[in-house]
Amino acid sequence: MRWVLGVIVCAALSGQTPRELYIAHCSGCHGPSGEGSRGPALRVAALQRANDAESLIVLLRRGIPGTEMPALAAETVADQPLRQLALYVLGLRTSNSPAAGGLEGGAELFRGKGNCLTCHRVNGEGGTSAPDLSDIGRMRQPQWLRQAVVEPQKALYDSFQGYRWTINIPDNYVLVEVTARNGDRIVGSRLNEDPFSIQIRDGDGRIRSFLKDEVREVRKQWGKTAMPSYGSVFSESELQELVQYLASLRGVR
Amino acid sequence: MRLLRVLTLAAPLLAWAQVAPERIRHDDREPGNWLTYSRNYNGQRYSPLSEITPANVGRLQAAWTYQIQQPGKFSTSPIVIGGILYITEPGGEVVALDGRTGRPVWRFSRRPPPDLHACCGAANRGLAVLGDLLFVGTLDAHLLAIDLETGKLRWDRVVADYQSGYAITVAPLAFDDKVVVGIAGGEYGIRGFIDAYDARSGRQVWRFWTIPGPGEPGNDSWAGDSWKTGGGSTWITGSYDPALRTVYWGVGNPGPDYNGDARRGDNLYTCSIVALDADTGKLRWHFQFTPHDVNDWDSAHVPVLVDDGDRKLLLVANRNGFYYVLDRVTGAFIRGVQYGKQTWASGLDDKGRPVRLPNREPSDEGTMVYPGFHGVTNWFSPSFSPLTGLFYVAVREEPAIFAKRREPYVPGQWFSGGNPSGVPKIEPTGSIRALEHASGRVAWEFPLKSPPWAGLMATAGGVVFGGSSEGMFYALDAASGKPLWHYGTGAPIFANPVSYLVNGRQQVAIAAGSGLFAFALPDR
To answer: Which ipTM did the prediction report?
Structure first.
């Protein structure tokens, strides 16, 4: 009797569409369309932990230790439906395919007229006082990149749109001004922080760590960025070329 | 000869390890042990040890680290008897550790059923002890009794059906001859309860349904059949007053969490504290903090019992942003004040009922409210120090956008009726606040960077220990809040601290990431 029941359960499982599996097992935390809720958004350009079917299947089987993400047991979702579920989840990603060809102009503007490498780095070349852009095209849509160039303070990185249980590394690059006991002021973008210390990258690209009880003040400049607007530097067609280039940056993966 | 001598020496030791109920009741007689979840029945999570003080805590050193063998969220609060720590791993394994070295001396393992789907990752918050038994709940909703000496299973009772979304993550509460346990599953349309079992046999003694059935008082606070999936989980250990023979236990959110349309009414006894007759499980009184909750503000909190002269108080800092002082004999509301950021109520009326502001409920397009779905505080324990008279609470400052939707109930499946999310551009933060326990006035505040997930422990040495979401285990001055010491464990802390003696020396310990970290002062 018992195995007969097992067969019926298996049949019921394989009868579920990937969408039904997603609703049953994932949507509670990740939202009905992957928009994120208690869990991170899946409707993004690239999944941070597993961005291909094989890795995602492994992740779904193991869960993510130390987080709310449980493991999906074989008895809950069998192997074959699991692959379908993984493909469904990957299909939630926003389409953000790199444009073909015509990137040299944008690259030259980035390097030359914009002088962007003074602060930013791409594939090991350039400064480190601003975020490394080697794979920015995987994470951001062209319209966001355009706004970041024209109105940088409106496009500040935002760690908090999707709910996060804990923040291991904040990625919103908050501009911080630290005043030392001797009155020296050090300005930089925040790399990390806890109740007792803060780590920033200063204007020279150096990593600096401060204990809060050893400095006079730590002032966060919410909504501000060290990046100036390039709206008046580039023409409309130049902007398009530049954004096309940035969107093409996909890193090594 | 020699063997005989060892045996005669061992016999009194074994007898000593038998934890008679009087030992837990008179916790002050053995300050070096930690015999129940909050150390004492009054839920204070206060250690009477005083070797570690504000003057020397800066020299605290790592004593040892124990690494767990199972993945999941490590939230155990150890039981400590005679220098041996008894802990649970996230999947429900029980391990006894030597407090000198952190070395395991026995391990109880049990294979969970293969189709177990633990909602929010594996978690277990700890054990209860009574006689020669340890009691642990499991993710598949069993209650187990384990031999305190050897780690062998002594009895195993099914508390509820895990396939319908029930689970046990709470540390049970043991007193007299009983063990009381609550249930999790508030996001699965369960009907919650609190159970008492005979500690020796595992036979059920009573059950209190947190959602009253038809014909029972309070059932009319639910529209139609909505009580059947009403939630009301009981996933945080309650407190116990032996003199009043009353158990006090917090009740979780109504289901579905964010959509109250189908469950019009106050939805008793969700988001309440219930006071139960310890012998029969009958309701003595209840107090509802958040009638008709639509924000997942469980009242899964450890109630703190404090006596002010002959006034017997019950203190709760609630998820909903208000701190309450109740009379624990009658349940009468004495005082309530806001202690954290909230934007949903204008205050409390003279009965302690919140006065809701208009248009703050979840909506189709989403409504932003402080606090978010994790509340101004959460399950982690507050602490009370009889020395300072202060109530210490870890406070979260974090809004959420609450969107509601319609969702069918399918047994065993997520049933929350909505989709809350974070708020762009607002960085969540938090603090530790010390409240004057009678008035709720903030005496001091220590700022945190991120909203906390760890509880607090005050000690007779005048120190408050806590943990941060960045993994800092830290000590504050109990009187002033001044930071005195911290140690980076390297992973977010989702646990409560404990303190105990090993060979006469005070240790403090907390679970963080996949390690249990123990600290002591250097040898004198």
So the answer is: 0.86
Architecture of domain A104-156+227-248: Orthogonal Bundle (1.10)
Residue ranges matching CATH 1.10.760.10 in chain A: 2-91, 104-156+227-248
* Active-site hit among B132, B241, B293, B296: B296
Give Cβ neighbours of residue B4 (< 8 Å, ≥ 6 apart).
none
DSSP summary character for residue B238: -
Closest CA in chain A for residue B512 = A66
Nearest CA in chain B to A75: B115
* pTM of the complete model: 0.90
d(C-alpha B357, C-alpha B391), whole Å: 28
The span from the first CA to the last CA of chain A, in angstroms, equals 50
Q: How far is B395 from chain A (nearest CA, A)?
A: 14
Tens of pLDDT along chain B (524 residues) come to: 455 454 444 444 444 458 999 999 999 999 999 999 999 999 999 999 999 999 999 999 999 999 998 778 899 999 999 999 999 999 889 999 999 999 999 999 988 888 887 666 789 999 999 999 999 999 999 999 999 999 999 999 999 999 999 999 999 999 999 999 999 998 889 999 999 999 999 999 999 999 999 999 999 999 999 999 999 999 999 999 999 999 999 999 999 999 999 999 999 999 999 999 999 999 999 999 999 999 999 999 999 999 999 999 999 999 999 999 999 999 999 999 999 999 999 999 999 999 999 999 999 999 999 999 999 999 999 999 999 999 999 999 999 999 998 888 988 888 899 888 888 888 899 999 999 999 999 999 999 999 999 999 999 999 999 999 999 999 999 999 999 999 999 999 999 999 999 999 999 999 999 999 999 999 87
The single-letter DSSP state of residue B236 is: S
Burial of B334 (0-12, 13-18, 19+ CB in 10 A): middle
